[in-house]
């Protein structure tokens, strides 16, 4: 740090013991962060460690439940993003929101355009200031073109230009490099360094350790909504940071029972989809649970959706039990014996306004119908089979699905898909938003299904779940499978390392 | 008709401006209008070259221009105002009633009351859309019927005739100034003022921003509800102005006055290049769209096209305009994307 140690100047931004809960879910238990002026401060942690919540509190989007929030030594309470902005805080999101129809210049100044004394927008002054800012950033940008069609990197630069024109003293970059190419990352870093040297404080959130170590001065680790440590970047190693990020006891909460591993059921050969994932190959055997691990946004769900046929892909093949699964055709995939339990069960898996029975039988409606009609007797009979087998805790089958708890909703969705008698089940984040007790139940269920010879492809962001349940772990990083780890070798460190670390130089 | 070029004074960058002129969306509509007028005039020279012909060409679309300008401002914010036809009906009747019930009332006072009345009806729309968070399509469809209902309740089977209104007032509807109808002059002033506001004032630019991406507008800290209310109030006020001018021009108003105008206004805006999902387009385009729409209506009978086809031609024009916009947008977005790739390689 460039500040003299004997003048304890107030930090640009300081959080102490900040907490935030949403209902019963604790997003932040106790977060600390001390950002100095003239410094780039990395904030790292696993998915769900609470980084995003922290950013949203600083940005004024959420209000904290407890703790101190100081800006240049003074306590602040933001109730809107406008207040945070006025106080000099700018947030650059992974995917900026701009006005596609308006020019680059207008996007920078919208709402606070310079005006002449008649209240008329002074376009010349506006453009001059914009070009001055981009000159300072040493970036070439066509100021008159609309924002539509700009790359994410350029859109981020517009956000940065906006922050500069606001004279923001604190910049928060939330995974800004996730969608950038190597050259763009270099350019962004050059800009970030020059902003730091102008006396601003920058919080840099990233999952790429090479970048974190290349750019930052200080690093703070968070885990499970808590502050873990802060160090000067030169005092720590990558291994230490990874250990702190995952460092918790992996309880034997999620034991998969031994099952007979049989023949290959699902075979994915070299499928690619431009810009989403590339050269993905793997197989799932009967009785096996294969986990797709990796960071949020690595492309896991996209791979699953492509395999099932919800999305198309450009090349490669998918076969199920030796038969080709046609591209982009979920109905055919279902007929062949594939099932997909989506990540967002409330939106993609359930009709919340319908009864449990109707939801559970949704996927077999043609099978249940006679001459095009379905009797509620047939519907209830079919639903009851699964409700009992999955132990759905719902007093009646006509309960509305929306009123069930997360765990029971998940069981209904599972029941719906199991009713189609699939041979391979793809399940995306099986226990997201489900309380600990029910989690174990869902896991027991999956284990049981594998025991009956089903092949299961499980996507999970929760390391303990991956390590406890999976026979094999496939680690996805930036749209590629970067590692395949057998159950015996899978540890929190090995999975996390593969998920965050580039073995080859970035693109 | 050089609406687009009067937008800004010529500068030393004349070449750039002419380039812009030939590329702009409004130019295409203007060209279509010129072609329609030219062809019709060749078939029947009185269409343009008679004192009545020239006057009708300008006079007929004037009232629709006013509504189309208001409609364009609302559509730019990604809303729509379907109640304008009913507002025209109500304010036209209001104007007539005032002349009957308040003998000797100054004409200017009636104008102000009608415009204020229209603005008030627009305010109701705006508040419901901006704060009730109900889509404008639903709200203004509701107020379309509600306002018309009030009109029917109030008017009954009454009809206000020209004998009920002062001569000076009726004169406004037909008189000309230097061969240009006064209605057209009013419409022109409104178009230029609205165009200036949308281009040069923060409030105007924010209407585009809100229509371009409402979520981004929130994140930018723009006062989104207030701006949406403003757009609806302006649309209502212009419909009020159109209402009183309707009374002056036709000298008669009843409970069905203005029916169907709302769809013509939406059509005019869309034909004129105002994107139906907001964020782009100009009031100049909407105004030219209004002229084109009504001129075609008058030209088709002269060209010997049957009644039956006239509606179809208008429909084809609207669909054609939307398809054209879509194609242009796709081309532009492809061009912008490829430019980016070139500059990064």
UniProtKB/TrEMBL annotation, chain B:
Keywords: Cell inner membrane, Cell membrane, Membrane, Transmembrane, Transmembrane helix, Transport. It is a multi-pass membrane protein. GO terms for molecular function: transmembrane transporter activity. It is found in: Cell membrane. The keyword Protease does not apply. GO terms for cellular component: plasma membrane. CDD domains: TM_PBP1_transp_AraH_like. InterPro entries: ABC_transp_permease (IPR001851). The keyword Translocase does not apply. It holds the Pfam family BPD_transp_2. The chain crosses the membrane at residues 29-50, 57-76, 82-100, 107-130, 136-156, 177-198, 228-248, 269-296, 308-328. Part of the ABC transporter complex LsrABCD involved in autoinducer 2 (AI-2) import. Probably responsible for the translocation of the substrate across the membrane. The complex is composed of two ATP-binding proteins (LsrA), two transmembrane proteins (LsrC and LsrD) and a solute-binding protein (LsrB). This is Autoinducer 2 import system permease protein LsrC. It comes from Lacisediminihabitans profunda.
